[in-house]
Amino acid sequence: MRNFGKVTSVLMAMIFILAGGAIGGDKPWFDMGCDLCKVFLEESKLMETMGWEQYEISNGIVQISTVEASLLPAYRTAHGKMMAGLDRLEKGDSLYLCGYCTTFGKLTEAGAKIEYIETKTGDVLILTGDKPELIADIKAMAQRTEEEMKKMEAMEKKEHKHE
Prior knowledge:
163 residues, 45% helix
């Protein structure tokens, strides 16, 4: 399981630095200046202790987020703020989105289906498609996310090496 705490300082340092690619455009893939992502930084110690896992399934991906029991209320609050941001987008408001959120939105606009399950320790998100091209795009997003997480983890290790 990935621990977001390991990459939080790197995430902050990489705002506006990571270059995008075909998926996500020219925006940073992860950007804590993103109007949907930054709400998780507003809750004390949440990003430092969050765990995250991602798995491919035949028609998409499963993402699992976990938090310490004491931070579950803060996680639910942050998630609620993120959903309020999505509501604003649907009403036509303009928000700044990172490459990940932009790509996620494009996938849902293309027909990807979201299943969201709250758990005792966080949540499970299942993103699926019913057409081969859409499934391939979902899995490409997942691969890009894994690659960007590995870059951040490598930068974190390098950063600690120099301390």
